[in-house]
Amino acid sequence: MKKTPERIESLAAEYVLGSLKGQARSRFERWMMESGRVRQEVWYWEEKLGQLSDQVPAREPPASVWQAIERQLWPQKPAARSTGGRGLWPAWSLMATAAALVMAVMLVQQPGSQAPPEPGSRLSGAIVQADASDPLWLVSESGGQRHLRMRSVAASSAQTGKDYELWVVPAEGNPLSLGVVLVGDVLQVELTDEARTMLHESRTLAISLEPEGGSPTGAPTGPVLHVTKLYEL
Amino acid sequence: MTTTTRDPDHEELIRLLLSIARSDRRAFQQLYQKISARMFGLCLKLAGQQELAEEALQDAFVQIWHHASEYHSDRGSPLSWMLTIARYRTLDLMRSRAVRRAGGEEHLEHLEDQRSGPLDESLRSAGAKQLTGCLDELSDVQRDSILLSYYRGLTHDELAMALSSPIGTVKSWIRRGLMALKRCLER
To answer: Which of A31, A196, B37, B121 makes an SS bond possible with A58, Cβ 3.0 to 4.6 Å?
Structure first.
């Protein structure tokens, strides 16, 4: 079939629409490879018909999709498999999105900040809500890295029968509970050696919504409301 | 080809794609958080079933990871480029599995009399607002054939059944509708 301008025009539109199928579609894809003119025509329709997608309502995909993408792109992670908590941190952050409550600010790490913490370095940060000007909590290490100090600023209490629970989220593996977080208080969380090491490695904290008194299982059971990354002062 | 300005995240998405082209996994995750819901909505609308939509979403993001460097402004806005990837992938999966929407044929029969069925009213009017009103200039059957193909991935056969018309007629509605659309958009 000859590539007349009329045919290119008509087939490109049908290709993008999806009504061109089977062999005709494959043949047209060959045309695309061969001809910049054909590609231009396809791109024209992709942009124009793409506008129709603006009105399709968004839907949060389940967290398992992100995990599957990670597994497919970066398959070998033996250490994580043994803990059964593979890809937990990305999954958490997605759950936070899915809950449509907040997006935590990700503070970009400075170059070289992956190095082990210097003796005097302190972690600090904030748990924020995307649409609020004040942070919900301010977080800082104190007492020579032995404690984490959490000051509630704009946080409001959890609903009746529920508590917020604070977690340190490792790069891989299961999160470690730092206990229930009360609103309207300055909270001093004592950091065990394990928690401190984990926190300095991942710098990632999360807050989940749990039954009153905290998670009964030792792992987060409710929605993850906030995930935040601390930075070094 | 003009670059669209309707997407306020335009610059941000380009920045993320550039980082992803350099294998920046964090940027990739940010991109996922930013657009996966948009993309999944489209896949789900098209496929009409959760499992296939999830698979298409996964495949689309894997493709984006591998092909981020191939994006350029001639391909339209970065969002439109990525949604196109997802849409093609969904169509491929639907065709290879010969997906029929559950209860689809029944719904399709209502299209004629009630002008509803598989194409919800919101999408019908939304489609009209887009494309600078050019869809309004098409005949009803031309517009519906195009929108049903776009949003629901109906094949010629399915369209012929939905619109109770011979397949040749449906094909020509689509072809003529698309060409009329282009003439209008070029004015």
So the answer is: B37
